[in-house]
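yo, Glycoside hydrolase family 2 TIM barrel-domain containing protein is done. seq:
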Amino acid sequence: MSIIPINDEWTYRRPSGPFAAFDGGPEVLGTARLPHDALRDEERTPDAPARGAGAYYPSAAYTYTRTLDVPEAWEGRTVQLEVQGAYRRAQVFLNDELAGVRADGYTRFFVDLTPFLRYGTANDLRIEVRSGEDSRWYSGAGLHRPVILHVDEPVRIVADGVRIVTERIEDDQAVVSVVTSVVNETRATRTVRVHTGVADASGIPVEQESTPLTLAPGEQADARQVLYIADPALWGPDSPALYTAAVALDDEEPVLTSFGIRTVTVDPRKGLRINGEEVLMRGACIHHDNGPLGGAAIGRAEERRIELLKEAGFNAIRAAHNPLSPAMLDACDRLGMLVMDEAFDMWTRFKTPYDYAADFPTWWEADLEALVAKDRNHPSVIMYSIGNEIVEVGTPHGARWARRLADKVRALDPTRPVTNGVNALLAVIDEMPRIVEELGGLNALMADKNAMATVGATDTATARIEESSAAVDVLGLNYAEKRYAQDRQAFPHRVLVGSETFGPEIGRLWPMVKDSPNVIGDFTWTGWDYLGEVGIGSTMYQGDDKASGKLEREFPYLTAWCADIDLTGHRRPLSYYREIVFGLRTEPYIAVRRPEFHGVEILNPSMWAWSDSVSSWTWHGYEGRPATVEVYADADEVALELDGTEIARAAVGTDKPMLAVLETTYRPGTLVAIAYRDGAETGRTSLATAGEALLTASADATRLVDDDDALSYVAIELRDAAGALVTDADREVTVEVTGAAVLAGMCSANPSTVEHFDASTWRTFDGRALAVVRPAGTGAATVTVTAEGFAPVVIDLTVVDAGCDDVPLTVQGLEPVDLALEAASRA
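structure:
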């Protein structure tokens, strides 16, 4: 068995037909190292077909090509191409022959190249992708996840053929089953031995087994092994212990599989339990894009997002609304992030003109099989979701689909519960005129800040979703928290999760979750800012020339701007408010609404929008003018002091729980917020007016491995000599990368800009910008950050050969079972 990443040396171009040669050949756009999103660098325009939903990017199609050197030694072997994600409607050609297709842009799939190979020469590999008006958010377009070549012997462990399940956990041991699927593609009966070795996180072998398996010609069969691991370290969100299983046939190179020992149960009285201990999911919905990298799922980008979400207090993510990349699931396993693993955003009814609904009847079963096969060994995946806001769940045949999908998932993996993110309002959208009248008319409903939840809690909604809800183990509710208490009474055996909720309402929602044993968590929309659905969380002021009166904003809006964490990975004020509500932070937090908009009317306020505030007391030019200060605190009162003198005091909870709003006048100095409960101080925090700005830059990694996953994130900030962020002195900064690395992308957090992610110059936003550097060879690399009027900042990087970290997985003189153990210990 050989696994060969083929992520370098790709060329991408516009697609071309058979007569392109008459016009001088197709237009070549560039070369790429995968993962790659070609759409990211296209020109955004106000009249793009998908408009704000797609971040004003055009519809596009691309052809990716590279050569494969196929040695004569491969003859007689099976050669498969693993495509972890190609957006979208991918067609794979080898030597100009169609070898495979896939409709969904996020599904990992395998293509058998064997019938089309030419041995002893270079082969031409081509993958066509296309997208446009097929998604409600920015999807990107390209080979946005890795591509891997598998070269296997005729008798082999099949792809995704190792399945590991925790059967039970006892006081002194864990019982783990390992099922290995083996295929014999020879014309003779073969008997092989399946050797399995398991090592713990320190590389110490802990268990082993060897089993014979006889296969007739063309037969596929399973070897079932039961292992007993003494005194196991259990996987959980606070202690993500991992083991590695190495499974080999005879003396072949083993298949390595990381896994965790843990159990998952749900019930309406004891909630979600992991290893028997109750866990409430502090969840974040996240889209797949990586900001300045577009849709490219580069390993370090995926890992960094999970790191920062975890640091911000989340312990769970919901894949919105498609299967996650293997790289992100690996990061969730390592870091202890729970995953709601979602399959589809639509079933049979279209949400956009050319979306997956046209492909669903043909591909749904294969795509569910691919999802489960890819993810079932990841301990972080604790729940499968079969859909999001599926319109037809309120119909009899929609309920049939729900049951069909849920049963399919259970047949593939009975160890995890199944959910479905239901928007009850959408389920009754066809009856809205009657429902509106029953609720007192349109004006009464529009005056209801929580109208979506009100409609979702009506008797009509209850009746319409009852059958489809009974098909799943956990009912996901999108914006329907009024059902929590109602369903506890009406459906005492129903387990609920807030699968999508308004982020700014967490102060009201989290106590409801804690007080409802039938509700196992809350997933905010969203944890991380994303491209597309532009401006749904923005503040629309009177006089704003981009105010359209619609939920999405006009060009050049780029991001949704509704998240706890912005596009650069910086936590916004809402994130700190949530951390206090979760009970994870005792120190108060100060945010200041932008004083230039003090007193200006807000148009069409969005339920996804937090206040237009920044954690800053630096507002040059606004001295003596009114300022609104927010203080977040688990307290009943807060006081504001400026340079030691009290300037305001207010009760907490008047506007929102754990939030005080104070009016004052801006004057430079040190602003201190003091929190009180029953008259006693419980905590304090401060903001100081920043001095003269200095240009600073820092990299999160200065030693990189020259592989497909490596990145260095360079934070560019304007700070004074004391380290305070200067938020009101924004200017253009330029990044130059020389040597063995390239600038992979650059951005700020600005939700509305015409700047390009592939540009080397960006204007800071609230004092900050971000550059992403990717290795491109080995040796020294230099990142130089400049801005007019500042001394340049230089960061030195070192890029080493990926092969330096490679360790052979075979050792001379060891028996096959010891080889498996050796491989597991080195993983």
